[in-house]
Protein 1
Amino acid sequence: MFCQSLTFSATANPIIYQNATPVFIDSEYETWNMDPLALKKAFEKYPHPKAVVVVYLYGTPAKIDEILEICKEHNTPLVEDAAESLGATYRNKQTGTFGEYGIYSFNGNKIITTSGGGMLVSNNEERIKKVRFWSTQSREPERHYEHKEIGYNYRMSNVCAGIGRGQLKVLDKRIAKKTEIYEKYKKAFEDIPEIKMQSYVDESKPNHWLSSIILDKKSKVKPLDIIIALEKENIESRPIWKPMNMQPVFKDYDFIKVKEKSVAQDIFERGVCLPSDTKMTDEEQERVVKVIIKLFKKENE
Ligand SMILES: *Cc1c(COP(=O)(O)O)cnc(C)c1O
């Protein structure tokens, strides 16, 4: 299975659960997601993968048209990990609805939450029925308890689902606020040439779950300097996901890239996720900006 390397481990773990073999795919600089050129190259080396798993990092859609076209060419299903991108769109269509399957997460850290759990979507009704069967302990339609297959307890409780229905009502507001936060950071860092926001393609509208930046290669201020300076002010920021091909647990699997240096690794080394909570006030965001700008002013003095 082809899987975007720059992501959270939850994208890749299910491949191992299924005894399949992941082949990790590098990212491109525009959206930070799967590079269509690297995907093409992967198909040259491994012409018959079971599926392609793309991720929409921090709520930013990938180059979906290009990726879909390559998948169609090779008759391979696309699975979208839209865990971070609920509500983000590409050509005005929801992320998670382009491939054969889309997954969403309602974990506590996501744009809306049910406290835990997630959702699988597909237009393939037969497959969805099968998944529902597996997720509820594979109970055969008999009066007694009859099992012909191994089942799982992957159902969402009705209490959690109820919370989710309430949360759905605030999704649009959250996206508007997240977008506002992203735009404020973008504007605040306009005069610092070393800082670039994670960008996106014109066809897409990210949900801006996390506002993230990448520092110039020549920047004397490093991501860790920013994280530590913010920490001193009691403000939490985070590194970028460490690519799966760099993780000890996945070290034995192949990684396909087209650039000499891995783009995923480069983004990991030069990026930072900034505070993006929708409850953050303007004053609080201004404090974050001030701490960061001060680091660059000091360096340039
Ligand atoms: C949160 C997340 C998931 C899924 O997380 P769960 O805890 O299983 O809901 C999957 N992929 C990515 C990229 C995520 O950020």
Protein 2
Amino acid sequence: MPYCQMKTAPTPIAVTHTEGVYLHLADGRRLIDGLASWWSACHGYNHPHIRAAMHRQIDAMSHVMFGGVNHEPASNLARRLAAILPGDLDRVFFSDSGSVAVEVAMKMALQYYRNRGDRGRTRFVSFANAYHGDTTGAMSLCDPDRSMHAAFGAALLQQTSLPLPNDAAALERFDDHLSRHRSELAGVFVEPLVQGAGGMRFHSPQTLAAISEACARHGVLLIADELATGFGRTGTMFAVEQAQIVPDILCLGKALTAGAVGLAATVATERVFRAFWSDDPGSALMHGPTFMANPLACAAAGASLDLFEREPRLEQVAKIERELRRGLEPCRHLPRVVDVRVKGAIGVVQVDSLDHVDRLRQAFVDRGVWIRPFGDCIYLTPPLVVAPDQLRQLTEAIVAVTEQWAAWSV
Ligand SMILES: *Cc1c(COP(=O)(O)O)cnc(C)c1O
């Protein structure tokens, strides 16, 4: 089990099937999924359109190697992603998980400078409370004080973690760091607008724009990790749109296939791509996962994009945002709650410190909802198709259970 002391953890809940916003349990109960399986099931589960596309694809070809081979599901998907991503983010490299998409972005940035004859640029900057994945390269970009660093310590690559430039002083520090260290920097990684697993923290489009401007001014690549924020979650198709910026590299995953099957993508601008376009085999991008551009996953992702085109998902996100604000507001007055915040289809109740976690999670299951508090947050990232009464059941559960929980410790 993930991130789990298996000796002491409660028995995991047996799920037999999923449908719409529901997880169906082996004991006959069903839970409304308040997490959309870690941000991914944006159209709910088992959507008939995605299922049909996957059935067709599995009959034709579920997988073929991507070395020296191409196929329609991949080339169509790459074209469609390029068309909806901002600016000239047009060059797509597929992989099988978000962490690997981040590793590919790191390698792309390193080789970008190397291919231009600049061999000194080997380090990255990321921000306090960042989370960029679980593989060793991606881990080195996570907040060193709030992540799994403690378990791996000196074995990790050494990067620089800076406070998010939310105010003038932090912006000056960020700018100053880029100015002094640009000759050793290969890129700046940011989770645009919402930092996910490192604490569900939000920043403004102005902060994101300021990061982008500083990177451009000092000639350091900006890499946007949209693994969690991509595909409508923050109210726009991609979070970077709200700051009107075009990062040099952007990572996608999670909701890319609407949670149907694993797939991720690292997308580069034309300028980054050009640094690899050469007669020298040594300047090729040195990466190639076995299941790269898996046709079944690409077909699911294409069907998910159809749904974003045909159905009013972003309007649904705006409605979810209003309902989350209204529904979670009563938490603000509960003991031990330090903040309530909402952005798009993300609702967060931050508490002073999370204790009785297993009992808390069980209390949600007993109320028919799937919500898993972690860190210092009790949060919702529901499927974007959640109905008003289902969403109300989720927010009412958070208000009631958080109130009970606050009394457990006194
Ligand atoms: C989930 C996530 C990742 C890692 O993706 P996996 O598919 O779990 O490897 C990286 N960055 C962010 C911001 C994420 O939310």
